[in-house]
Design a protein that fits this description.
- The complex is a heterodimer of chains A (334) and B (558).
- Chain A has 334 residues and is mainly α.
- Chain A has two domains: 80 residues, no CATH class; 239 residues, MetI-like fold (Orthogonal Bundle), CATH 1.10.3720.10.
- Chain A contains 16 helices and no strands.
- Chain A starts with a helix and ends in a 5-residue tail after the last helix.
- With 558 residues, chain B is mainly alpha-helical.
- Helix content of chain B is 47%, strand content 11%.
- Chain B has 21 helices and 16 strands.
- In chain B, the strands form seven sheets. A three-stranded antiparallel β-sheet of chain B has the order 3-15-6. Chain B has a three-stranded antiparallel β-sheet with strand order 10-7-13.
- In chain B, α13 packs antiparallel against α18 and α17 crosses α18.
- Chain B starts with a helix and ends with a helix.
- Classes of the chains: A mainly alpha (334), B mainly alpha (558).
- The interface between A and B is large, with 40 and 44 residues.
Chain lengths: 334, 558
């Protein structure tokens, strides 16, 4: 009697996770002897062959352009190209380090970005859980659509609206604060407020989008778990903490890990449209700096150097969070 | 057997995908070659150009414009202006690409970075230098000498040759300046109906300016809840801010925004760090404290800041000569004039008249690719443009209006691929006089005729032309020009070379520091003495280095 892996498949589809390749091999080897490996290869090689065009495209569009990294070490001259431009070693990086405000700029970037990541995780999860508790479907749908809308607006447009809303003389926000006896605050012109305004407005714009992801995660939780918890006497709150949140954990960890790669992206479009010289101190981030320096002055090498640095830092953070997710939450993304 | 069929299917799939990919590649190469091959074939056959009756081809890139309206059946590929150039001077124009206003500059950068230049294109000063250093563009010295007509040569040196000099590197002419007239001065625009109502004198000194703006705010003739004295927007020191800027305010204090001026010992110094600036900033801080400047100006762009002007909240603003075209949005409502504005020269802090700061009059250049087959065609385009733009015959009106040769607001002139403007004009002398006396006979240029016509429409009751009268009419924005011109009462940037190496590395930080300090002083966040600290910092952060380089350039180019 020979049992083929494909015969088993008829009864129960075997996904990679429940029945990984090594186990399949093991099964085959056990059933068929060492011959099994060859057999699998014989059966499956066309599938591997089909990967080749995809692999080729990935190589062409994702790996070959990485050769452009050498621009970071060059004084790039267009008609001499990537391989003819003179090398200047680390001068582009030196220029970056020598920049008097560079510490401030890195701090601003991380400060705003980390707050955005944290708030961008917390708010949508909370809203998703609250929405999930709503009984009436139509209220839930309406709310979901409304909070989702700002996601589609560009920052160029929203910045104009924000300037109006936050205006200390005529803005609605300050008027409301005025009812509680708060003096008007110039949110966009004050170094104390600017970073928080960036975080708050970004969360306001994007939390609807995040909520959808978490709502999807919520639907995948098996209802019998809630029933069991209720039987054991858990109320709504307890159910949330012991059933809902653990059930969402894989998605939360995934989103967090992906977002941590953005730790050096504090949101160019948003800040570029809203900042002004009085708040440079708290608002100037790497991307706005590179824009003024690299793009406006056509310093290709310099812009590449900063880009490379950002990629390296992001890569480190993503790797780190991946390892942590695996070690602490025992969650594997790949 | 089963395996065999599967194998066949898969192989077919892969092969077809691969073929499709190859097919695309082939198409790509075909697509890119037409631009190369015709010029190549043209190159072998027609080296002598139009004299022999043959047509040469030059390629360029163009910026599409929402105000350009094509005649029926015409397009960028085929239109009466391109046809006219081909017929009249034997130069056929093709476009390698066309992009709209928002994309054009970015696309030029990419074109340069990818070494894919058309035969000629317009670039900015930084790119001109970059392209010269990269040896991607042609030395035009001899070409210009040989092919430019005497009229062209005269036309482009009207200003004494300054603009041509900015395009010259080591004695080699590398580009043709896209010239314009730099002798245009900012003015102060004030609500004259309010002045009359409150019985105030015209502002002649900076003290008057403060007094008038205080009166405007306190007595509030507009009757609005939000009132300030002077309209200011978020980039007040930038040259790009034509209305609601503060450059003219600085000029009133004999201070100037980032130009290089005489240090009194035959050298040059940067105007940003001069003590006069501190005085001007102190005055601005004072106005800010008194509530004469919108505390939110730092986040308002020109249009938003101007809303307060339209809305009777503010009655005073500095601006370029075309400012009335902006003011008209509030001044004329439903065909009625609801606001009256007057133009005044920049007030001065003391007895010496204020000197408006001006540039050289060229920010962009036409350059010719080193690979161009027919560079002389470009110079021919230049010759022809100067002829048809300045004294067109009846037939040549095609170049301005299209084949039916009548003005219909389609902006056909935008189709001319190479355009240069007059470096000098006498609008200020001619127009106010002509309009006042309704004498059309003294008008000289097409521009003057157009402006006269519009101003006359206003005189005859067409309120929509209100702005032209305020620009060109008696006591209009142009009318103060001749006086300033005669007395050389302007401050022109003495440095017109390409950015120096340290400028390239350091200008950004200097500008950032400057804006930060200027704004904070203005907004009363720091004491005005912070300016002295800034001066020290400016020097240390590369300013001294730049000053040295600029002076080296100055001694070599005096």
């Amino acid at each position: 009697m020979r049992v083929y892996y494909s015969d088993v498949e008829i009864f129960e589809p075997l996904s990679e996770q429940t029945f990984p390749l090594t186990a399949r091999l093991q099964l085959n080897i056990e059933v068929n002897g060492m011959n099994g490996l060859t057999r699998i290869w014989k059966r499956e090689w066309p599938l591997h062959f089909m990967l080749i065009p995809g692999l080729f495209l990935v190589l062409l569009f994702s790996y070959v352009p990485m050769a452009g990294i050498i621009m970071a070490f060059q004084k790039y001259v267009p008609n001499k190209g990537l391989f003819g431009s003179p090398f200047i070693g680390m001068k582009n990086f030196q220029l970056l380090i020598d920049y008097p405000d560079i510490g401030r700029i890195f701090f601003n970037t991380m400060f705003i970005a980390v707050m955005k990541i944290a708030a961008g995780l917390f708010v949508p999860i909370t809203i998703a859980i609250l929405l999930n508790e709503l009984r009436r479907e139509w209220i839930k749908r309406t709310f979901q659509t409304l909070v989702y809308l700002p996601h589609f607006m560009s920052w160029v447009l929203l910045s104009g609206i924000l300037v109006d809303i936050l205006s200390p003389s005529s803005g609605i926000f300050n008027q409301v604060l005025g009812w509680f006896g708060v003096k008007p605050i110039f949110f966009l012109g004050s170094n104390d407020w600017f970073p928080y305004v960036m975080v708050a407005s970004d969360v306001w714009k994007e939390f609807g989008f995040g909520t959808i992801v978490y709502l999807a995660a919520l639907t995948s939780i098996n209802p019998s778990l809630y029933e069991a918890a209720a039987m054991d006497g858990a109320g709504r709150i307890k159910q949330t903490f012991y059933v809902t949140l653990p059930g969402m954990m894989p998605i939360i960890v995934l989103m967090l890990t992906l977002n941590i790669g953005n730790v050096l992206n504090a949101g160019f479009e948003q800040i570029f449209n809203l900042y002004s010289p009085p708040v440079y101190e708290s608002a100037d981030i790497i991307d706005t700096f590179v824009y003024r320096m690299g793009v406006q002055q056509a310093q290709f090498g310099f812009a590449t150097a900063v880009g490379l640095l950002k990629s390296i830092v992001s890569f480190l953070f993503v790797s780190l969070s991946y390892v942590l997710a695996y070690r602490l939450a025992n969650y594997r993304i790949f | 057997m089963k395996l065999g069929r599967k194998f066949l299917l898969i192989t077919t799939l892969i092969v077809s995908v691969a073929l499709a990919a190859c097919g695309n590649n082939a198409k790509e190469t075909e697509k890119s070659s037409p631009s190369a091959s015709p010029s190549a074939s043209a190159g072998s056959s027609a080296s002598s150009g139009a004299e022999s009756g043959e047509v040469i081809e030059v390629s360029t890139v163009s910026q599409s414009d929402p105000y350009l309206k094509f005649d029926e059946g015409e397009s960028w590929e085929k239109n009466s202006i391109y046809d006219a150039y081909e017929k009249d001077i034997g130069v056929k124009i093709t476009n390698k690409w066309i992009a709209d206003v928002t994309q054009f500059k970015e696309k030029v950068k990419i074109t340069i970075a990818s070494d894919d230049l058309p035969d000629f294109l317009m670039v900015n000063a930084t790119q001109l230098k970059e392209l010269t250093e990269a040896d991607m563009i042609m030395d035009l010295t001899e070409l210009y000498e040989q092919y430019a007509t005497d009229e062209t040569k005269k036309f482009l040196t009207m200003d004494g040759g300054l603009q041509m000099k900015t395009a010259t590197f080591d004695g080699k002419l590398m580009g043709i300046p896209s010239s314009y007239n730099p002798y245009q001065y900012q003015n102060l625009y004030v609500r004259t109906d309010w002045l009359k109502e409150l019985n105030l004198p015209e502002p002649k000194t900076m003290a008057d300016l403060v007094a008038v703006s205080e009166a405007f705010k306190a007595k509030n003739p507009g009757g609005k809840s939000t009132t300030y004295g002077l309209a200011v927007s978020k980039n007040p020191f930038s040259i790009e801010t034509g209305v609601t800027g503060l450059r003219a305010f600085l000029n009133g204090y004999h201070a100037y925004e980032n130009i290089w001026i005489d240090d009194g010992n035959g050298g040059l110094v940067n105007s940003d760090i001069q003590p006069e600036v501190k005085q001007a900033l102190a005055a601005l801080q004072d106005m800010f404290k008194k509530g004469l400047i919108d505390p939110e100006f730092a986040v308002k762009d020109t249009e938003k800041a101007a809303e307060l002007l339209y809305d009777d909240g503010i009655g005073m603003v500095f601006g370029a000569t075309w400012t009335p075209a902006q003011l008209v949005k509030g001044a004329v409502k439903d065909g009625k004039i609801v606001q009256e504005w007057g133009v005044f020269p920049i007030p001065s802090v003391d007895g010496n008249p204020a000197r408006p700061q001006i540039g050289i009059g060229v920010d962009e250049y036409y350059v010719i690719s080193k690979k161009a087959k027919h560079p002389e065609g470009v110079i021919k385009l230049l010759n022809q443009w100067i002829v048809v733009d300045n004294h067109p015959t009846e037939d040549q009106k095609v170049y301005g209006y299209g084949k039916d040769r009548v003005e219909k607001g389609s902006n056909y002139w935008l189709l001319n691929p190479l355009r240069v403007g007059k470096q000098l004009d006498n609008n200020g002398e001619i127009l106010p006089k002509a309009i006042e006396t309704k004498d059309a006979s003294i008008l000289q240029t097409q521009d003057q005729k157009n402006r006269y016509e519009r101003a006359m429409k206003f005189v005859d009751g067409d309120t929509s032309m209100w702005w032209e009268y305020l620009i060109s009419g008696p006591k209009g924005a142009f009318s103060y020009g001749p006086e300033i011109q005669k007395n050389k009462q302007y401050m022109q940037n003495k440095f017109y070379g390409a950015p120096t190496p340290t400028m390239v590395d350091r200008q950004e930080i200097l500008t950032k520091k400057r804006d930060e300090v200027y704004f904070k002083i203005m907004m009363n966040q720091v004491s005005v003495d912070e300016f002295d600290k800034f001066v020290e910092e400016w020097k240390k952060l590369g300013g001294d280095e730049i000053t040295k380089e600029v002076n080296e350039w100055y001694s070599a180019n005096k």
